[in-house]
Write a structure and sequence with these properties.
This protein is an alpha/beta fold and 430 residues long. The protein has 17 helices and 13 strands. Strand 11 (304-309), helix 12 (313-328) and strand 12 form a beta-alpha-beta unit. The protein binds adenosine-5'-triphosphate and magnesium ion (MG).
C-alpha cells in the first residue's frame, strides 16, 4: 500500500475510549481513522462504505458483542483485519475471537506503540478468502503477513503434524541440515525442538545437550546473544540446535497456565523465538502434535507452516481438520504447505495425487525408506549426512532448495508493492 494511508475503523461503545484511540492514532501519519462506531450493529452497517483496512474492535459491546460483530463484519468486508481489544481477564474469549476471524489482540488501554505496531502489522496481512485452501494453484505466497519485509529477520519454518509418528522430527532435522548445506556457512540455520515434553531432536542428531530450552524459561524476557549461544548446541553440519527439556517435568516451567497470553499463545515461547530469529537466517521448528499454547504462539510467528502426513486416511483426515481449523482462524493459508512422507508407489496407500487434490499441492513427497530412516534414527546420524544421494535425502534437499528459493525471492521482491507480492507463490516454483 505504498503511498496510501492505512484506513482504520474504531468500534467501542464508550465515546471517550473511541476518542482516546483516535487521538493515539494521530501520532502516525500513515494511519487514517475513517470511521468510528458505538456498537457492533453500527459497525456492520458502516463497514462497507468506510472500507477500513483494519478494525479495532472492543470485545464487550452492548447488543451484539465484539466477537459476533467481527464474524458478521468480515462477511461484509472479508479484506478487513480485526484487532480485538479487551480488558485483562477476558482471555477465555480469545479463542472464540480467533475463530470468528480476529487477527490480533490488545489489552485495554493499549499504548500508542502497541496500537500503531498492531495496525501496521495488520495492514500487511493478506486477507484470506474461503476457497483459497482448495485452489490447486495456491502455494506459499510471499506476501503473507508482510513477512518478507525485514531482510535480516530470520524465517521461521514450523513442522507440524496432528498425529504422532508421521516423520515430523525426521523432516525437521534433515531439512535443517540440507538447508544449511544449500545456503552455505555464511547463512545461519537453527533448529529448535518445541516438542517440549517428549522432544527427541537431540537423539536424532546424537547430541547430548548440557543446556536446553528449559534453561531459558526464567530468562525469556531478557534474552541476549551470549545467553542464546550457551544454550544452542552446535552440530557438525553447522546448524545450531536448541534442544527440548531433558524430561517432561522439566518442561513444566515453560508450560504453566500463567505463561499464556491473551491470544492463547505461549508468551515465553514467543519471547524466545522473537529474540532467536534475530540471530539466525532460518529457524526450523519441530513440534508436538497438539494445537496448544506453544502451537498458537508458532502460528503467530511462523513464516511457513509445513503439515506432515503419511498417505493413510486417519492422517489425511487429521491434516484436513487442522487446515480447516486454520482457515476458520483466518490464518493466512498461503503460509501453509504440505509434506507427504512415506510415499511408496509399490505399496497400498492413498495416492499422493489424491491427497493433493483434496488439500493442496505438496511441497515435497518423501519416499518411504525404512532401512535408511530407521538406521538414521537409531544411530543419530541424519540421512542427508550419511546417504545424501539416496532418494529420501534428495527429497529433503529439494525441499530445502524450494524453501530457500522462496525466501530469497521474497527478500528481493519485498521492495515491490504488496499487490505484486501477493500474486507470487510457490505454486510457480513447483
Ligand atoms: N520416509 C520414511 N521412511 C521410513 N521411515 C521413516 C520415514 N520418515 C520417518 N520414518 C521413521 O518413522 C519414525 C517416526 O519418525 P519421526 O520421529 O520423525 O516422527 P514424528 O512425527 O516426529 O513422531 P513423534 O510422534 O515421536 O513426534 C522414525 O523411526 C523414523 O525413522
Ligand atoms: Mg517428533
Amino acid at each position: 500500500m505504498a503511498g496510501e494511508k492505512i484506513r482504520v475503523m474504531i468500534v467501542d461503545d464508550v465515546a471517550e475510549t473511541r476518542e482516546q484511540l483516535r487521538k493515539l492514532l494521530t501520532f502516525d501519519a500513515d494511519i487514517q481513522v475513517v470511521a468510528m462506531a458505538g456498537s457492533g450493529e453500527d459497525a456492520i452497517k458502516t463497514v462497507a462504505s468506510a472500507q477500513p483496512d483494519v478494525v479495532l474492535m472492543d470485545i464487550n459491546l452492548p447488543g451484539i458483542d465484539g466477537i459476533t460483530a467481527t464474524g458478521k463484519l468480515l462477511e461484509v468486508l472479508p479484506t478487513a483485519q480485526v484487532v480485538m481489544l479487551s480488558v485483562q481477564g477476558e482471555s477465555d474469549y480469545m479463542r472464540r475471537a480467533m475463530m470468528a476471524g480476529a487477527r490480533d489482540f490488545l489489552t485495554k488501554p493499549p499504548s500508542a506503540d502497541e496500537l500503531i505496531d498492531a495496525i501496521h502489522r495488520m495492514a500487511k496481512l493478506k486477507p484470506i478468502r474461503s476457497g483459497d485452501i482448495l485452489a490447486p494453484a495456491a502455494g506459499m505466497g510471499s506476501g503473507g503477513a508482510g513477512l518478507g519485509a525485514a531482510a535480516r529477520r530470520g524465517k521461521i519454518i514450523t513442522l507440524f503434524s496432528p498425529k504422532g509418528g508421521t516423520g515430523c522430527t525426521t523432516t525437521a532435522v534433515n531439512l535443517a541440515i540440507a538447508l544449511q548445506s544449500s545456503v552455505g556457512p555464511e547463512t545461519k540455520v537453527g533448529l529448535i525442538d518445541l516438542s517440549l515434553q517428549f522432544g527427541d531432536v537431540a537423539v536424532f542428531m546424537k547430541l547430548q545437550p548440557t543446556r536446553t530450552i528449559a534453561d531459558l524459561a526464567s530468562r525469556a524476557n531478557e534474552m541476549d546473544a551470549e545467553l542464546l549461544a550457551t544454550v544452542m548446541m552446535p552440530h557438525p553440519s553447522g546448524i545450531k540446535v536448541l534442544a527440548a527439556p531433558p524430561s517432561p517435568e522439566d518442561a513444566e516451567s515453560l508450560l504453566t497456565a500463567d505463561v499464556v497470553d491473551e491470544a492463547g499463545g505461549n508468551r515465553l515461547v514467543k519471547s524466545i523465538l522473537k529474540f532467536t530469529r534475530q540471530e539466525f537466517d532460518y529457524l526450523i521448528i519441530d513440534t508436538s502434535h497438539a494445537v496448544d499454547n506453544v502451537m498458537l504462539a508458532l502460528l503467530d510467528l511462523s513464516d511457513m507452516l509445513l503439515v506432515v502426513l503419511r498417505p493413510v486416511i486417519p492422517e489425511i483426515r487429521g491434516a484436513r481438520m487442522f487446515l480447516d481449523l486454520l482457515q476458520k482462524m483466518n490464518y493466512p493459508m498461503e503460509k501453509a504447505g504440505l509434506v507427504i512422507n512415506y510415499v511408496d508407489n509399490k505399496r497400498m496407500g492413498i495416492q499422493p495425487e489424491a491427497i493433493e487434490r483434496a488439500m493442496m499441492p505438496a511441497l515435497v513427497r518423501i519416499p518411504l525408506d525404512e532401512r535408511i530412516a530407521l538406521t538414521a534414527a537409531n544411530y543419530g546420524v541424519p540421512f542427508v549426512v550419511k546417504e545424501p544421494r539416496s532418494p529420501i535425502s534428495q527429497a529433503l534437499i529439494k525441499l530445502a532448495q524450494v524453501i530457500d528459493k522462496q525466501f530469497a525471492e521474497e527478500t528481493v521482491e519485498s521492495a515491490q508493492p504488496a499487490e505484486t507480492q501477493r500474486r507470487m507463490g510457490l505454486g510457480r516454483l513447483l
